[in-house]
Amino acid sequence: MLLFAAHHPQPVDEVLDQKVWHFFDHLPALDLNAYLPHFHGVLFLFNRPIEYSFEWTRFKIVILLAAVLVWLIYMPMARRVARGELPRGWFWNAFESVLTFLRREVAEPTLGHDADKYVPFLWTLFLYILFLNLFGMIPFLGSPTASIWVTGGLAAIAMCVILGSAVGKLGLIHFLQSFWLPIDVKGGVVISGLLYVVELLGLFIRCFVLAIRLFANMFAGHMALATILGFILVIGHLVDLNQGAGMAALWPVVTLTSVLAVVALSLLEILVAFLQAYVFVFLTSLFIGLYTHPEH
Question: Could you give the 3-state DSSP secondary structure of residue 201?
Answer without folding.
Answer: helix
